[in-house]
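chain below, 361 aa
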Amino acid sequence: MLIFIARRLGVMILTALALTFIVFYLTNLPPNLEKLARTEGSVRMTDEAVLAWIDQNGHGGSVFGRYAQWIGLAPGWVLTDEKGVTRGRCINSTNTPETAATYCGVLQGDWGFSTVFKKPVAESVMQKLGSTGWLMLAVMLVMVPASLLIGVLSGMREGSRTDRVLSIFSIATTATPEYVSGVILVAIFASATAGISPILASWGWIDSKTLFLGTATSAMDGITFWNFALPVMTIALYGIGYIARMTRASMTEVMTQQYIRTARLKGVSFGNVVMKHALRNALIAPFTVIMLQFPWLLNGVVIVETLFNYKGFGWTLVQAAGNNDIDLLLGCSVVAVIVVLTTQLISDIGYVFLNPRIRLS
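prediction:
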C-alpha cells in the first residue's frame, strides 16, 4: 500500500506541474498581457509603452523562466529603471530590495497580488474557498444519501414500478441544467408573485413574502435554512440523478451474481441479502463517482454561485476571468488542481479497500 501511495504521489506531482504550466502559459499569452498592461497602465498606451510595461513588470522573457519564478523554483525577477528605482517579484511594501527574499513563489506561499480585490491572492482564494466549502458540504450531505437510496431501491428490483419511477426522476434531474433548475426553483419557492409563496402568504403560513430567499448573499454572513436551501437543492438535484443511475447499474449487476442466488436458495431473507451481501460490492463503482463529485462541485458551482449571488470560489473565478486577473486565475487553478488530484488519490485508495481482488493482486 505504501508503494502504491508513493507512486500515486509521484504521478500527482508531475500532473500538477504539467497542468499548472498549461494554465500559466494560456493566461500569459501576449493578448492577455497586453490587456493587463492597458488595464493597469492606460488604455491609450502605445504599443512601445505596452511592451515596456510588460518587461518592467516581470512578464517578459521565457515562459519557462517566468513559470519557474511563479512556482518558486527560480529566483524572483529584479529590475532597476532609469530613475534608480528597484522593483521585483519579491519586493513589496513590507520589505526593501536588500531584505527581500530570493525565492517568492507558490511553494513559498506567495501566490501574487489580486488586481480585482486589491489584496494577496492566497487571502482572497482561501476566504472564498471556505464559503464554497460550506456549500459543498451541504450539497454532499443531501446528495449522497439521497442518490444512494434511490439507486439501491431501483437496483434491488429491476423493472419494477418503483424502478421505473425512480429512473425517470434520475434521468429528468440529470438532463436538466443547473441554470434551468435554479430558475425553476426560484420561481416556485422564492417569488412573491408566482409559485407557492403567494398562496402560503395568503393562508398566513409564512410571515415574509417568499418561502425561501432567491439570493444567497446573506449566507455569507450567516447560513440559514431559508437562504441556503435553493442553491443546495439546485446543485444536489443534478448530482443525485447521476450518482443514482450509477448506483442502480452497479446494484442491478450485483443482484444477478451467482453468490446472491446461492444466498437466496439457502433461505436468507431478501433484506439480509441486500444489506450483507450485495450492498458493499454495489458501492464500489458509486464510491469512485462520489469522490469525483468534489472537483465537479468546486468548478461546477460557478453557475449556481453567480445565479444566487453567493460570493464563493466559483464567483471569484468568474471575477478573475472577467477582469483578466492573471494571478488570481493562477491561484484558482492551483486550488482546483490540488482538489482534483487529492480526491482521485482518495478514490484510488478507497477503491483498493473496497475491492479485495485489487488488494490480493
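The first strand starts at residue 78 and ends at 80. The CA atoms of residues 164 and 360 lie 38 Å apart.
thats it, cya
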